[in-house]
Amino acid sequence: MKNVPMSPQKMREVVRQIQGLPALQAQAVLKFVPRKSARFVAKTLDSAIANAEHNNKVKPENLLVKEAVTGAATSLRRFTPKARGSAGPIIKRRCHIKITVSDEKN
């Protein structure tokens, strides 16, 4: 998933919780994480599982979350007025989520 409107730091806290878990267990964990970022990660994980099922004919019970990372995307820069005619920056951060699922045990 690309250009998610959330900072990578907030997203990493959720993504680290599912690394190395079986895919179905990772889905169950994400259902109960009370953060907005968990919804984006769950949507990306669902897409990764569906792609593995369709493209490689792998059953979801056999899948593991091999890699789950998030990185910074381009940030939106806005400015707010400050004292004496100056301007203060507002940086609206965005991130990319990458989840790799595999049916290998190692």
Defining traits:
3 helices; two-stranded antiparallel ribbon; Ribosomal Protein L22, Chain A; alpha+beta; elongated; 106 residues; two-stranded antiparallel sheet; 4 strands
General description of the model:
By secondary structure, the protein is an alpha+beta fold. It has a single domain (8-102), classed as Ribosomal Protein L22, Chain A (Alpha-Beta Complex), CATH 3.90.470.10. The protein is built from 3 helices and 4 strands, in the order H-H-H-E-E-E-E. The protein has helices spanning 8-15, 23-31, 36-56, and strands spanning 64-72, 76-81, 87-92, 95-102. Strands 1-4 form a two-stranded antiparallel sheet. Strands 2-3 form a two-stranded antiparallel ribbon. Strand 2 and strand 3 (87-92) form a beta hairpin. Helix 2 (23-31) packs antiparallel against helix 3. The mean pLDDT is 95.
Write the layout of secondary structure elements.
Elements: H1 8-15, H2 23-31, H3 36-56, E1 64-72, E2 76-81, E3 87-92, E4 95-102
Antiparallel strand pairs: 1-4, 2-3
Distance between the termini: 26 Å
The low-pLDDT segments are none
Judging from the principal axes of the Cα atoms, what is the shape? Answer: elongated
Q: How many discrete structural domains?
A: 1
Mean pLDDT score: 95
Helix % is 25-40%
In brief:
The chain contains three helices and four strands. The chain has 106 residues and is of the alpha+beta class.
